[in-house]
Design goal:
The chain has 195 residues and is of the alpha+beta class. The protein contains 5 helices and 5 strands, in the order H-H-E-H-E-E-H-E-E-H. The termini are far apart.
Length: 195
Amino acid sequence: MATGATAETTTGTTGYEPRFKRRYVDEIRPRLVAETGLNVMAVPRVVKIVVNMGVGEAVKEAKTLDEAVNELRIITGQKAMVTKARRSIAGFKLREGVPIGAKVTLRGDRMWEFLDRLLSIALPRIRDFRGLNPRSFDGKGNYSFGVTEQLIFPEIDYDKVTTIRGMDITIATTATTDEQGRALLAAFGFPFRTG
């Protein structure tokens, strides 16, 4: 009996399920099945979220890259990967292989939690927010948008921020068309601009 309890705790099955994941299974997926007429398995779903932060000034000062990596870790709850320049660009004094950014790829429960915080807390904190561009899909149902400052996330301590940095957020879905992707994200409550 004791070994079964130990195995359960080591696998991490606590019975916790993110709010947006439960909402997708209980509300959004059945509604999309009814609206689109697709099979339950063919209904689009969110696969991963990629958060990317470009730090061009890291070429001159390496400390800024460490700050960006730390901020991404705080925002997403996952260690960020440092991205390097793919080619040399003389105009930007950039050489191939020099670290110039950081990114995090979120899947599973962390992805659902980030999506919940993004829609519930972060996006409403953007100054003069008029909605997200509904045309920022890539033709295959994936959506990308930019955020101008990391301070919209409440996890970031305002007093410790030295530089305001923007980030790109990409939401990858299994949708095959932009219309399916837009319907999925609108069902989650993405604040798309109208008109």
